[in-house]
Every structure is written in structure tokens, then in C-alpha cells.
Design goal:
alpha+beta
Amino acid sequence: QVPLEVDGREYRLDLLFYHVRLHCYVVVELKVGEFEPADAGQLSFYVTAVDRQLRDAARDEPTLGIILC
């Protein structure tokens, strides 16, 4: 798990990778059960946070998000 702080609160991403060929971060969320719409909202939140905190707009492409259920 990768810690990420947003507005003073700590969140934990399941997996965070950097794709060297695509020049972008990849956030992977792991879910034990079936897909729930709230899972997409959580992933979107994490992708936005990574884009704002880690991504270099001059060098990196937008962050990708993947949910594995």
C-alpha cells in the first residue's frame, strides 16, 4: 500500500506503478467482491490525487486507473 495525503488525511493506494514507455502513473485498486459504483469514485479520487501531487505535467501523461474485482 502506498500512502497519499490529501487535505491532511492519509489514504492508501493498493498499488502504484510508473509505466516507463507510456510515461504515466498507474493506480491499481484491488477489490475482493463484485464491482460497486463507489469503487469507480474512489479510484477517480486516487487518480486525481496522483495527478496533482506526483505527475509532472511537462513530462508525464495523465494517470491511468485500473480496478481489479
